[in-house]
Amino acid sequence: EPEVTQTPSHQVTQMGQEVILRCVPISNHLYFYWYRQILGQKVEFLVSFYNNEISEKSEIFDDQFSVERPDGSNFTLKIRSTKLEDSAMYFCASMKGASTNEKLFFGSGTQLSVL
Amino acid sequence: AQTVTQSQPEMSVQEAETVTLSCTYDTSENNYYLFWYKQPPSRQMILVIRQEAYKQQNATENRFSVNFQKAAKSFSLKISDSQLGDTAMYFCAFMKHGNNDMRFGAGTRLTVKP
Question: Which residues, at least 6 apart from B41, have a Cβ–Cβ distance to it below 8 Å?
Answer without folding.
Answer: B88
